[in-house]
Write a structure and sequence with these properties.
The chain is of the alpha/beta class. It contains 9 helices and 15 strands. Bound molecules: zinc ion.
Length: 344
């Protein structure tokens, strides 16, 4: 089994090395903790605390801060924030130690804007590409980027849960078991469901539909889990279902050609039909770094631009999603324009 090892060189620098030894792979986790401690020393102590106190809100594929029995029956209007691709390290990815000033500046302002919102969003969902470097390709940089994320988003008011999904950069374009294990240790479950304000949410790992050849068992479990969640959704005929994921099923239309930015056919149409038949109303996606979207039968696919590094005309921003008893509205806001007063 392929593994990774941290060792100290003659100058006492920690060195990252690849190895074929299973035992070394196990001890690497201990070394990585040491590296983490070393990096944390670079932050002021209150920021260290934010990194260490980062809360993982998922357990056994559920979000434990929302009481399902209560949330399932709520009817009053509410809203959440959907964002993605802060991708710490993106702008300076060619450097050995990427300068993250650009991402930090945007996300510091974003956190301030969200903390000023009245009323508060019920949660802030960040649907992938939390960091830029693939976890098992350069674990050291991955940890630096992860800690920067946690340092900044750890400043979000404690009563706004920050929930995340994995993007291709968080688990790799072709995830291995090691990538998934690292992701889980850092962020929690890579797929989960929860009830909030009368909506049943499914957060899925879209990478399973891009390339799962290294982790066929995980992909199978993920698929079984989705089947089970959709069965629950079908049983509760009056319920409304929203899916949150990183890579979109399509950008504008379900019949568009296969593309790097989408999950491709034949999986695309098979899954979309499965979602339609289970009452899914909206699927919020990211990855494209531009605003896009379209409708397939009863489902609206909403593709939202990036928090950092947008590729289209829209400036960095997030989407505000308002949920009412009989409709769901959504608007994209640049970071500067995020409203402090939200009318529902
Ligand atoms: Zn992506």
């Amino acid at each position: 089994m392929r593994g990774f090892q941290w060792t100290r060189d003659t100058t006492e620098h920690l060195v990252f090395a690849e190895t074929d030894n299973l035992q070394t792979s196990r001890t690497w986790k201990k070394h990585s903790w040491l590296v983490s401690q070393q990096n944390l020393g670079q932050f002021p102590s209150d920021e260290n605390t934010r990194v260490h106190n980062w809360r993982i809100f998922t357990n056994k594929h559920h979000v434990h801060v929302f009481d399902s029995d209560v949330e399932e029956n709520l009817k009053s209007p509410w809203f959440f924030i959907h964002g993605s691709d802060p991708q710490y390290g993106f702008h300076d990815y060619k450097s050995d130690y990427p300068n993250m000033d650009q991402e930090i500046q945007i996300t510091e302002k974003l956190v301030q804007k969200i903390n000023n919102m009245n009323p508060r969003p019920r949660f802030f969902h960040i649907s992938g590409d939390l960091v830029n470097v693939f976890p098992s390709s350069n674990y050291h940089i991955y940890k630096l980027e992860e800690e920067t994320f946690k340092k900044i988003f750890g400043k979000i008011n404690a009563d706004i849960p920050v929930l995340v999904a994995c993007g291709n950069h968080d688990v790799g374009d072709s995830p291995t078991q090691e990538d998934l294990d690292i992701y889980k240790a850092s962020w929690g479950d890579n797929y989960y469901s929860f009830w909030c304000g009368g909506i049943f949410f499914l957060v899925i790992n879209s990478q399973c539909y891009i390339d799962s050849h290294n982790v066929p068992n995980c992909a199978r479990k993920h698929e079984d889990w989705i089947e089970e969640q959709l069965r629950v959704a079908r049983e509760k005929k009056s319920s409304r279902v929203i899916v949150l994921q990183h890579i979109p099923w399509f950008l504008k239309s379900a019949d568009e050609p296969n593309d790097y930015f989408t999950i491709n056919n034949p999986i695309r149409n098979a899954m979309l039909d499965k979602f339609v038949n289970s009452g899914v109303q909206k699927i919020f996606c990211r990855h494209y770094h531009q605003n896009a979207g379209g409708v397939y039968k009863d489902i609206e696919i909403v593709v939202t631009s990036a928090i950092c590094g947008p590729l289209g005309e829209d400036k960095p921003g997030v989407r505000l999603v308002k949920v009412y008893e009989n409709k769901i509205e959504h608007v994209y806001y640049c970071v500067d324009d995020i409203p402090s007063l939200v009318t529902l």
